[in-house]
Amino acid sequence: MNTARGLEGVVAATSSISSIIDDKLTYVGYDIDDLAENALFEEVVFLLWHRRLPKKQELEDFKKLLAENAPIPKELIDHLKSYPNQKVHPMAALRTAVSFLGLFDDEADVFTKEANYNKAVRLQAKIPTIVAAFSRIRKGLEPVEPRKDLNFAANFLYMLNGEEPDQVAVEAFNKALVLHADHELNASTFTARVCVATLSDVYSGVTSAISALKGPLHGGANEQVMKMLMEIGSVENVEPYIRKKLANKEKIMGFGHRVYRNGDPRAKHLKKMSEKLTKLTGEPKWYDISTKIESIVTAEKNIPPNVDFYSASVYHSLGIEHDLFTPIFAISRMSGWLAHILEQYENNRLIRPRAEYVGPGKQTYVKLEDRG
Ligand code: CMC
User: Fold this and answer.
1) 306 touches ligand 1 (CB under 6 Å)
2) Coil/strand/helix, residue 140
3) In terms of domains, do 329 and 208 share one?
């Protein structure tokens, strides 16, 4: 049997959603650089779900559809209030809340194309409301109702802070959402596809995807990056801190990638944003510490930063709590998960690989009383 550890190099699906070829990332053929510079997140969601860019009116209608579906049921707000909030990681809260939300969806187990699309709309629209509501509830504040007149990025920041964000923050956050929206067969998307390939439902698919994203080798890395930056604290401390980690063969969070060999094309956009935003907030040290880490890790290991590395200082500069970084990744990647779930249903076959058995050979069963 040929085993590919961690399924490295294995092509496990065909997809027309996003591609990584020669270190270039495209969504439906559109270069991520173009989309990051120009597109609204809602436009990208439409692109991933419909495989074409929306026309002007279609985009307006789609934005309206998401905005109208953003409120979450009162039962869910009460449920969020019942969590042991101070102890709960927001990704655990999100995983539970999204699953709970499915209980209130009359179409949860309806498998028509239309019902599945409607569920996708509801999930995409409501996930920022859930994350923002949880963040406020655990601080003893009431959740803020979503607004219909704000775009997706602005609405999230508004619901989080209870005040309208400025244009710089909205543009930066929109760009971060665009950059995280889809990424071919990453671990959480693969998880979602494995789940729904059993013909399980959309809520189960995204709940399992959130669970996979939570881990620090995947989406959880962005929170760990910020933890590292805080521990380092100053540019002078970078050198001894990083060299010690490398000497101990510890991984540096926010570096490396299974697929990219010469660097993650998303990282440069976040790096630029990090430089700008850390200056604007009067805390350029987070960018300076980050670039110093980058110079050491690339010189010593030749491993470039990935999407998670500079997103940490970007989100920190936007005033976002550090344990919300991964939920924000989930808010964006929800669009990709849903695109892949819908695509999987369109051309489904059970995903069931094999394992190479490496345990003991034939053994003889010994009765319990004779086992000594
Ligand atoms: N720091 C130090 N060494 C590293 C790192 C790192 N971040 N990443 C890989 N290496 C080394 C690793 O130690 C190994 O060295 P050796 O061959 O000497 O044992 C070699 O590179 C190959 O590493 P691997 O873990 O086998 O590579 P992989 O393809 O299985 O893992 C990865 C990819 C992203 C899990 C890994 O690079 C990593 O753990 N990075 C840190 C966590 C992280 O930033 N995750 C976010 C990934 S990108 C966006 C996302 O999915 O959220």
Assistant:
1) yes
2) coil
3) yes
Tell me, what DSSP letter sits at residue 186?
-
Residues 236 and 177 in one domain: no
pTM over 0.95: yes
ipTM, interface predicted TM-score of the complex: 0.98
Whole-number Å distance, alpha carbon 287 to ligand 1 midpoint, is 22
* CATH number of the domain where residue 308 is located: 1.10.230.10
Containing domain of residue 170, as a range? 12-217+323-346
What lies within 8 Å, CB to CB, of 26 at 6+ separation is 18, 19, 32
Is 368 inside any structural domain? no
Angstrom distances, CA of residue 316 to CA of 63, 222, 256, 320, 370: 27, 11, 22, 5, 62
With a 6 Å cutoff on the Cβ, whether 308 touches ligand 1 is yes
pLDDT digits (tens, 9 = 90+) for 68-91: 999 999 999 999 999 997 789 999
Same domain, 33 and 83: yes
- Tell me if 165 CB under 6 Å of ligand 1: no
